[in-house]
Amino acid sequence: MQNAGPVAIVGAGIAGLTAALCLAGQGFETEIFEQADALKEVGAGLQLSPNASRILIELGLLPALESVWSEPDSIALVDGHSLRSLASVPIGARARNRWAAPYGVLHRASLQKILFDAVIAEPRCRVHLGCRIESEPEAAINRSMMRRPQVIVGADGIWSQTRVSIPGAGAVRFSGNIAWRMMLPGAEATACLSVDRVTAFLGPNAHLVAYPIKEIGGFNLVAIVGGEAADSVWIGKDSEDRRRELAAAFDGWHPKLRELLTRATAATYWPLCTVDDGAWHDGARTILIGDAAHAMTPFAAQGAAMAIEDARELAQCLAEAQDIPSAFAGYDRARRSRIDRVRKRAAFNRFAYHARGPVRLGRDLVLALKGPEALAADLDWLYGYGAAASSQIVADLRMKTCRNSKCYSDLSASD
């Protein structure tokens, strides 16, 4: 857009900070409003699949990411009762070749700090901490900025106040699943965990994901079980009663996994909520991205990735469109089908991961018949998204990968 005015962003999480950097790269000035006095990311570990890490590489953040993340060699699916291997998807160096970007795991706080440091160093970005935007966000932002922003971006998460101002926006809904997020010191880990892989242990009505976090020298554990929201839809407190519920959900699982859950520390209990399909913008000035627009269950590990993709797409649409309504419409067209497909993948994973009885046996048979390369090919649409638009970065990354590790040239034809 010609003579583009400033953009106001509500929320300094992964969505908001990435949006600020992407918009700055397109020449927009941005002002970010964050209610916290200091940035303290809630949560623990985070998986950054290639469709997300590629965008962060475009922003020049690969060296900072490589200093804190790990790149596991595989994603393993394992039976939670017997510890029998069910399937494996190659990542590591193969992800860099097949999907033209790394698959990294790290602490959420580390990613947020990397993004925040980049925003602070960007002259086009300004951050307002301790600035709560609640009712009538447009009026509150106008007062804080002392000028009228051209666009307001709601990146304020699942409990978005910006969403309230969007007619027809989706409602928050409890998904019927509970997530326990925990950390396990490396000294407490057993042989069923490996620093070289992301492991998903599967069982009826529950699954447990574990992967290494280099910053703490241990593992991130995420246990997802079916349950009720209880007395609140958003609870972060651990308790003896909650711990008993967790133990009951994994009754009958392999003793080594049950022991890991008792040794884990820094446990938080989060009923998982989603945002129903609905309007993402008002057609004139305000638009939602990330969880504020379309929070989804974590069964495909794509929540942060979708926010990062949203940020890049919105910046591109605003830069290329003639006016704001056209930009918003273009963004909606570009993201709606993508988000819908990822939601469906997450729903399928939930069905498969928590399967029981004959369905579970059928799942195991299908996984046994599919080799690692076939399973990787099933993810090309997800992890390879956007690779064609990043040709020079992809070429540079592949050259670096081939210098630093074995170059899997046999996979290049499937990119």
Helix content: 25-40%
Determine the structural class based on helices, strands and strand pairing.
alpha/beta
Name the CATH superfamily classification of the largest domain.
Answer: FAD/NAD(P)-binding domain
Order of helices and strands: EHEEHHEEHEHEHEEEEEHHEEHHHHHHH
Strand segment count: 14
Kindly, what is the distance between the CA atoms of the first and last residues, rounded to a whole number of angstroms?
33 Å
Let me know the average pLDDT: 89
CATH architectural type of the largest domain: 3-Layer(bba) Sandwich
- What oligomeric state do the depicted chains represent? single chain
Strand order of the largest sheet: 5-4-10-11-12-9-13
What is the number of helical segments per DSSP (H or I, 4+ residues)?
A: 15
The percentage of residues in β strands lies in 15-25%
Molecular shape: globular
According to CATH, the fold-level topology of the largest domain is: FAD/NAD(P)-binding domain
Total tally of structural domains: 2
Which stretches are low in confidence, meaning pLDDT under 50 for 5 or more residues running?
405-415
Cofactor: FAD
Pfam families: FAD_binding_3
Protein name: FAD-dependent monooxygenase
Keywords: FAD, Flavoprotein, Monooxygenase, Oxidoreductase
